Amino acid sequence: MAGTDANAGVADSIVAKWTAAGLEKVHKVEYNVLLSYPPDATNPNYMSIEDSSGKVIYKSEGVSPAIVVNEQSDKDAAVQWVAFSANGNVVGDVVYCGHATDREFQWLQTSGISVKDKIALIRYGGSFRGDKVALAQKHGAVAAILYSDPAEVAPNGIQKDDVYPNTVYMPAHAVQRGTLYKGNGDVLSPLYPSKPNLWKSGSVEEARNRGDLPSIPVIPISYSSAMELISRLDGIPAPRFMQGGLNITYNAGPALKGNLKTRVIVSGHFDERKIQNVIGYVTGAEEPERYVILGNHYDAWTYGAMDPNAGTAVLAEVARATVQVMNETSWRPARSLMFAAWDAEEYGLVGSTEFVEEFAEVLTRRAVAYLNMDCLKGNETIYVQSSPSLQDQAVLAAKNVQNPRKDEIAANRTTVYDTWISLMKDFEYPGVPNIPIPMGGSDQKTFLDYLGIPSVNFAWIDMDKHYTYPLYHTLYETEFTSEHLMDTDRFSIHRAIGQYWIEFAVQLADAPTIPYSLYTLSTKLMYDYIPTLAGSIQSMNMTTYTTDGYQQLLNMVSTASNLQSLTHRLEADSMPRTVDPLIRSRHNDKLIKCFPSYNYHQGRGLTAIAHFSFERCFVNPRGTPDDVTARHVLFSTSKTDAYAGSVMQQVYKVLDDMSDATEAQLPALSNELANQISIVHNSLLCAMSVLADQI
């Protein structure tokens, strides 16, 4: 856990291993940040069910039991808690809120069930836990209880043979830990690095007031404890989409049968602690000032065998193998490889965010790309999230790595790419796997969202549970799980992760020119992002208030067309493309449907070198009205789910606001819609200018 002596020991171990491997300039970058800690195992948080006299009918465990005892003996690791919860002792009625999204709260409201002054019982899954709790608090909840439902974490049943340690599925007394902090970086030093002698302008109270931290007590419980609550809930049955995997009917409450009450007790403390990022280099032979960054965090909630230690171990091996190849050959990458081990990621991407805040100017000028690998989620296929300009290279790297699965090789899927494309086709772009933009749940976020550095986040997953994995953040992420349940063929998946990571990095480091596929980005703009936005505007049927915004969008089409033509010409003879121009006609139909009056043509294009600053054009230094750290105008983290990525989020936020606005509010929102679309358009004009021979 970040800020502890044990975690400092992990940092020392990384320094020692990287130094022994031969990385250059290995050092720590330290910050003092606010973190959150649980009570000790002798007095844990708990949920209890009590009768009218105060007699305890049921009490949750508070700690998770060791199952593979020799690997799970640390009592403090077993404590069930979530970081940054408020302390409290709350007694009241419970409302079952399902996954606690707008859909569930809308159903509760329509059904006449209020969460105000109640305890919200919330299922994990579908979105970030901090967003769930924040929404429950917005609806008036005075406490929240989180649990993992068997529908997601034990779909084959909850009997002994169906769950850990016999399978990867969650056992009855397991609990997912995690942070509730919706922000990134140190709570006390927003926008600036948390260094000695620098003023800290933030406070816990301010973070709570703006909704980044909860002001109510929150506790995670096991599904065995949740069953004690759900089986006693009175009221009407929840609808089918809120029913779960326990063999009972999920009523919504709020009352418990027999006039029983629920108590939630949470105690913990906040403390400023030292965290330590570890940085090392392989210096480039030709462009040493350019960095291709390989990053992984090393802090964990418990033992962290999958999250993050799979990535931490592989990154150390990548460092060792890279230096070995250099020593045995005359090769050295043309551009520098930066190796980064981040601290306090689990609390809210703290270590990486502080690093970006401290070295923003250097990274903006020097970083070619950031390649993140957080955790091992499964063993079926690679899963890649990528900035569009790196998607070509993501695919190419996968084609150059041998498939780690013998059954896939026997089926003539010999490369990582072969399995990937067979399971995750992108039907818009034949021959290309589905590659979404990066989400907000790991360390790539600030590199992309704040600085505009093209970024990738990848993992190995199982298709039926790739959103997370059932043992995520539980006590049972240990060596046994990794070796005997997840990566059972002599760590072949770990090996493939390392091969893919360094293959990708070397492609970016050794290419004669930086191999961004600006054409892929401009094509997605032209044929995906813009038409989708146009359709959203049209579907609102609010012509009076969307005309100016739609005209701005039409203006942007002209620039996007020119940008697409220019990048096509620039890249035609220089690199492979994942977006085949032969499929353009199908996308033209989509474009023409949205903009029938626009005369689209291919255009002559220009000859120019794709400048390093192209991607930085999409960074708005002013941020958004709601979040000055959300600076990327195309790609950012969803405001309703910190685990998800979104496209042109601020534009869509205005559309959402217009849907709920009064007649008096619409004129101002109409202007803001046009303004936000114009901001995106300005980024396209910037991109055109940096590709031009002259201005």
From TrEMBL:
Question: Transmembrane region positions?
Answer: none
Tree of life domain:
Eukaryota
What sequence ranges are listed for the domain PA? 92-179
What is this protein called in UniProt? PA domain protein
Which SUPFAM superfamilies is this protein grouped with?
Answer: PA domain, Transferrin receptor-like dimerisation domain, Zn-dependent exopeptidases
Q: Which family does it belong to?
A: Belongs to the peptidase M28 family. M28B subfamily.
According to the UniProt entry, where is the signal peptide? none
| Gene3D superfamilies, alphabetized | 3.50.30.30, Transferrin receptor-like, dimerisation domain, Zn peptidases
